[in-house]
UniProtKB/TrEMBL annotation:
Residues 38-246, 261-343 form the Lipase domain. Belongs to the AB hydrolase superfamily. Lipase family. Keywords: Calcium, Metal-binding, Secreted. The keyword Coiled coil does not apply. Ca(2+) binds at residues 232, 235. This is Lipase domain-containing protein. It is found in: Secreted. One of its GO terms (molecular function) is lipase activity. The lineage of its organism: Eukaryota, Metazoa, Ecdysozoa, Arthropoda, Hexapoda. One of its GO terms (biological process) is lipid catabolic process.
Amino acid sequence: MKEKDPMKDSESDGLTTTMTNTLNFGAISIYLEFFSKCFDGLGCVKVDESWYDKKIRPVNLKPFEREIINTEFILVMRNSTHKNKNEIYYQVLTTDGMALQNAGYIQGKFLFILLHDFTSNGYTGWIKHITKVLKSRTVECNVISVDWHAGSEPPYDQAIANARVVALEVTHFLKFLRESHNVTLEQVHLIGHGVGAHIAGYVGHELKVKKISGLDPSGPRFDGMPAQVKLDATDADYVEVLHTDVGARCSTKQSDVLSLTRSGLNKGEIIPGCSHKRAFKYYIESLEIEDCTFLGIKCGSYLEFKQGKCTDCGENCRTFGLVTYSKRNNGSYFLQTNSKKPYCLFQYRVNVHIGAKKPDYFGSFEFFLMDQNYRSTKSSMLEHRGFKPGKENSFVFYATVPEMGKIVNAKVGWIEGSRVGWSEGKISLCLINCKRVIDVERLTIQSINSNTIYAQEVALCPDEGITEIQSGDFQEFSVC
């Protein structure tokens, strides 16, 4: 519950008002500072109790003045007159109609607005790269990078406070474009990385744009907070969020981000790194390549996905990038990526027909596939799971590029899981008939995300009719 104290402090210079409160959580009390800081011509940044949480967001700092943050709008273009037509150049924009046109802004065309992360800037590498791709994929479009590097420096709590002023600047700029250049919000796509994704959310909360792409939105101080504090599904007609698996490949901890100081940041260094940066790399690759599609499969949880339990596509599959979907089937979509470029993996739905020699099995499969051109690829299930006798045992096989030709042969391996384990919601304890084998009678392999002539569905049967696969061994299968 909230206990309001009388106003202890009231400061007003025409810009800022402050009020202190105490929020009680049982035996714990947190001192709160509710405030409203206004910026001439932009609007106000307001903080009330909804912006506080004793664990997630115990502090909210006042943002810097807009002159310190120094938000700039940069028109990013390719120099078509240069011998290298992919050469990128920049033009800082002002809210002046003629200056905007003279800079090269194309009136009436689609607008992409790029928003960088904490400790980054509006000229960073991914900004250049994505501009080249967007310009090549779209007949005519405008790309504007929002540079707020002076406000994005450590400490993190100050940067995320400054981010709200940046959102006011972007909102103001879009209103200017709408009034002076006939830009409609249906022509606006915001793409934000890290903290930039939440800036996009703040803008979308005020102006419902067509689309927002959040590239690994920052978690510290945001995850678990109310919708108005972070990027939310209601902030645009369509919101897509690309999360990368920080825990598996990244040593950067939340505490490292929160405690980072300016002196602790090396020149040119962007924090956090690791797989957080993979988000824009995946996004750019999804726009660059045509043969392979980053296709996420809808699943109830990441654990179920890792166990291979989600394989249905159609409306249960989505990609990201320039594609926009209806909100009818919103949810969490999962996919695997390669550990190095190219990151996109080809997906195959594998259906295993298992014999009835045992009532159930617990473990995982490993595959080596070979096509008609003698090219091979391999993949393993991420985690053990339960399997039942019969035909309904499906999971997704991920293969590196280039795409496999017609599959003619497979080596199928079986790894028996612990016999004391969780299987289909039950504790499995084997006491008798504990031979560590699985009886595989047939495989069906079907392409999921192929965009080429190699899309296929093939049935494979065990060579010489040998269906048993010992745990740790492989059995060969060929086209039936």
